[in-house]
Write a structure and sequence with these properties.
With about 160 residues, this protein is α+β, with helices and mostly antiparallel strands. This is Cytochrome c-type biogenesis protein CcmE.
Length: about 160
C-alpha cells in the first residue's frame, strides 16, 4: 500500500515538472515581438528604435495637434509632458480618441515620425459608454426619499 502512494506521488511530481519545462520552452521560443509593452515618447526620443522594429507607444494626444487628411489619414502628436512624437495613421480611429486623452499606438518609428498601424484609445475609471450614458439621460432616476427627512418636513400634529 505504501509503495502505491509513493509511486503516485512521484508520477504527479514528474508530470508537474514536465509541464513547467514545456511552458518555459514555449516562452523561450516565442518571437521577441510577442511581449510588447508600450514606450513613452521620452523613451522613443532618447533611444530611437530601428525602423524595422514594431513596437507600441503610449501617451496623451496633444491638444490642437490632430490634423485630418484625405480619407482616413490623420496625424497628431503624442506626448508624455516631457517629449512629443509626431504620429501618422491611416485607418479608422476609435470612438474614444480625442485631444487630451490617452492612446496607445502600434507601429514603427521612421524618420522621426511614428507610423502607426493600429491605434487604441485609453480611458480612465470615470468613462461611461455612450449607450449607458444615453440610457441614464432618457430614464427618470429618482433618489429614494429618506423617511427621516420626510418626517422632519411634515407638519407637526396638533394635539388639543
Amino acid at each position: 500500500m505504501r509503495s502505491l502512494k509513493k509511486t503516485r506521488r512521484i508520477q504527479i511530481i514528474s508530470i508537474a515538472i514536465a509541464c513547467i519545462v514545456a511552458m518555459l520552452s514555449v516562452l523561450w521560443f516565442l518571437p521577441d515581438d510577442s511581449f510588447q509593452f508600450f514606450r513613452s515618447p521620452t523613451e522613443v526620443v532618447d533611444a530611437p528604435p530601428a525602423e524595422s522594429e514594431l513596437f507600441r507607444i503610449g501617451g496623451m494626444v496633444q491638444a490642437g495637434s490632430i490634423q485630418r487628411g484625405q480619407g482616413t489619414k490623420v496625424s497628431f502628436v503624442v506626448t508624455d509632458c516631457y517629449n512629443a512624437v509626431p504620429v501618422s495613421y491611416d485607418g479608422i480611429l476609435p470612438s474614444l480618441f480625442e485631444e487630451g486623452q490617452g492612446m496607445v499606438g502600434q507601429g514603427r518609428y521612421i524618420n522621426g515620425t511614428f507610423e502607426a498601424v493600429e491605434i487604441l484609445a485609453k480611458h480612465d475609471e470615470t468613462y461611461m459608454p455612450a449607450e449607458v450614458e444615453n440610457m441614464h439621460e432618457q430614464q427618470n432616476f429618482c433618489e429614494p426619499q429618506d423617511a427621516a427627512k420626510t418626517d422632519a418636513t411634515a407638519a407637526p400634529a396638533t394635539t388639543g
